[in-house]
Write a structure and sequence with these properties.
By secondary structure, the chain is an alpha/beta fold. The chain has a single domain (3-281), classed as Glycoside hydrolase/deacetylase (TIM Barrel, Alpha-Beta Barrel). It is 38% helix and 14% strand. The chain has 11 helices and 11 strands. The chain has helices spanning 17-20, 32-46, 56-61, 63-71, 86-109, 131-137, 204-208, 211-222, 247-254, 260-270, 276-281; strands at 3-10, 51-54, 75-78, 116-117, 142-143, 167-168, 184-185, 190-193, 196-199, 228-231, 272-274. Helix 2 (32-46) packs parallel to helix 10. The two termini are 18 Å apart. The relative contact order is 0.18.
Length: 284
Amino acid sequence: MITNALTIDVEDWFHPELVRDHVDLAKAEGRVPEAVYLLLNLLNKHRVKATFFILGEVALRYPDLIRQLHREGHELGCHGMSHRMLKDLGEETFRKELLDFRSLTKEILGDVEIKGFRAPTFSLDRESRWALPILRDFGYRYDSSIFPAKIFLNRMYGIKNGPRFPYRISFDDPGREDPSSPLWEFPVALGRLMGVRFPFSGGFYLRATPFSLFKIALKRMNQEGPFNIYLHPWEWDRGTPRVPLSLYSRLVTYYGMNNLLLKLEGLLRAFSFSRMDEVLGKMA
């Protein structure tokens, strides 16, 4: 059985792009630990380790949670400091965020190596490819920020016709493979049914897709290689505050939250999962 990567973007309910501008961040109360502890119980039940891409703002607020994740054998990756998209950060601020994240994790964990990075909102694309040599300079071994398609209803992220399975990423064109690249890319899952690409990558796509169809698409992906799915703690937290949003934003943010952990448990029963660094280690 092929082992796949289970990844969690550890951010709070007010961090997503569609929500942040509708919240008074100075008064927003975080809910990350409650949600993560629910997930840890489920992962321990099925003896699964995952990769947690940690947002720096969350690590600052909950250092004991970060220590617990490491102590229980999960991989920790970087999700930036502020959850701002790469295009909004620019090169200089991005370097500063990585430096601040390195200092923070060393303070919390000591000399634990952080191997992987995921850009907030999957915002690595051809326009923000300048981030790749910066990741190399900071010693990262892999990135997992590519959404390998452009979705009509979501223009915030995506690379048209990007590779669907792990590859060594070209610094000139993130949508192409470069066998000499020092950096692996592990794109999120994109299934293919009747020749058409569909996102089966987790998050909203797992919440909104009938479970049987989702499972079929992932089984077909495993005929070719490992897949990578992602979730956010606020997506299964029944206490996640609801804020007034447009119909589209409300659908993407809140639809199907109550059943997400049930769907995840179904996936844990049907597939083999592990940390992203261990999945990539089998391919190196």
